[in-house]
Amino acid sequence: xxxxxLRNRVGxxxxxxxxxxxxxxxxxxxxxxxxxxxxxxxxxxxxxxxxGAMYQIHIESEVFSNKRIVMxxxxxxxxxxxxxxxxxxxxxxxxVPKS
Length: 99
Known about the structure:
Elements: H1 15-18, H2 23-35, E1 41-46, E2 54-60, H3 69-79, H4 81-84, E3 89-95
Parallel strand pairs: 2-3
Antiparallel strand pairs: 1-2
């Protein structure tokens, strides 16, 4: 399970890490890094057994500050609008970094 979790503490993902993760996880991380460049944490896990039908995502970013959870999740859904079309489900968790 730990192998299927991608953690991105700004600037800490190396290409060799990505090679041990599914293509879908890699694609989602890339999109989220582009849409949320200020994120301190991006975690993506394929929870469908590797077929790419369902993902669990956690993003920690200041951009979510003072926004309701519904709006935070909407922002993630909008960022992944194309990728979501190919999924059966998406479990989203968002947070703001603690100061």
